[in-house]
Design a protein that fits this description.
globular; Pyruvate carboxyltransferase domain-containing protein; 12 helices; Aldolase_TIM; TIM Barrel; alpha/beta; binds zinc ion; PYR_CT; metal-binding; lyase
């Protein structure tokens, strides 16, 4: 990932995209950019800045191109990512200068239809088209991440089989994505399931492709699941500052793992994230002020950074 600083773990901030997608109140473009600038100043190696969905379906992202272009103009050694649910979205994201495209194929057939109105096979083909489009960018290498929502369960179908997750992962690897992301869209995963799924997906896609994990904290198991991921060898994790987030097609899904809490856990364990936790709190203050009615869920924000922080043995 980007940045010169030595890191043991890469955290991708998904607040401006995944975090904002359920927030009804529109955050002004200028405020989003101030928030992203403050986030970038914390040392985050990657920020998922916007979603290139049609503005009619998610008015919050009507300014996606302005956000990505504005983010690219900020001076920082970090990567600007954007969600591209289809080829049109990918064209717009690339045109705005996105350096990483997040594409998705749900493991659950029902979630795929609800979220993208396409079945998994058609969505895999679209990801293949997006990879080809990204490879045509002149003079720069745009990374494509193939994310698999509902990798650990689905609010519509319930249990999602390991075979389904592995088949989608193998199809995505075949389509040429740079990494595979396992996403717990609804937050039903547990540490044992996380370990088992990572092992199975590793067998399905081989050792060469990197893995990313994305957890929601619906059942309070987000950090435990990340720990299971770390033990299984994954070092790239998504998180949203203030624990913002949800999924419009996954009722009951609560926020992402809070970036503040994840940084706290990892740094206290002696792992380097490269992220300044005080600057992170200051960045989240911008968001909190812009969304006074939104409930933020970060233990570190509520308790404050304790004196023991940074005193890891
Ligand atoms: Zn999510």
């Amino acid at each position: 990932m980007h940045g010169s600083q030595q890191r043991d773990v890469d955290i991708c901030e998904v607040g401006p995209r995944d975090g904002l997608q359920l927030v009804g109140e529109l955050v002004p473009t200028e405020t989003k950019l101030r928030w992203i600038e403050a986030l970038a100043a914390t040392g985050l190696p990657e920020i998922d800045a916007a979603s290139f969905v049609p503005a009619t379906s998610m008015p919050q992202f009507a300014d996606a191109a302005d956000i990505v272009t504005g983010a690219r103009n900020l001076p920082a050694p970090w990567r600007v990512g954007a969600l591209a649910p289809n080829l049109r979205g990918a064209e717009r994201a690339l045109g705005a200068g996105a350096e990483m495209l997040f594409c998705i194929v749900s493991a659950s057939h029902s979630h795929s239809l609800a979220n993208t109105r396409r079945n998994r096979e058609d969505q895999v083909r679209i990801v293949g088209d997006i990879v080809r489009l990204a490879r045509q960018e002149k003079g720069r290498r745009v990374l494509v991440s193939g994310g698999i929502p509902t990798s650990f369960g689905c609010s519509i179908e319930g249990r999602v089989s390991e075979a389904d997750v592995c088949r989608v992962a193998a199809d995505l690897a075949e389509s040429g994505v740079d990494e595979i992301g396992l996403a717990d869209t609804v937050g039903y995963g547990d540490p044992a399931l996380v370990s088992a799924r990572i092992k199975a997906v590793r067998r399905a896609v081989g050792k060469d492709i990197s893995l990313r994990l994305h957890f929601h904290n619906t059942m309070g198991l987000g950090l435990a699941n990340i720990l299971a991921g770390l033990e299984a060898g994954v070092t790239v994790f998504d998180a949203a500052s203030g624990g913002l987030g949800g999924c419009p097609f996954a009722p009951g899904a609560s926020g992402n793992v809070a970036t503040e809490d994840l940084v706290f856990m990892l740094e206290q364990m002696g792992m380097r994230t490269g992220i300044d936790i005080d600057k992170l709190n200051a960045a989240t203050d911008i968001l909190a002020k812009a969304l006074p009615n939104e409930r933020l869920r970060s233990h570190v924000r509520e308790a404050g950074v304790p004196k023991v922080y940074g005193c890891a043995a």
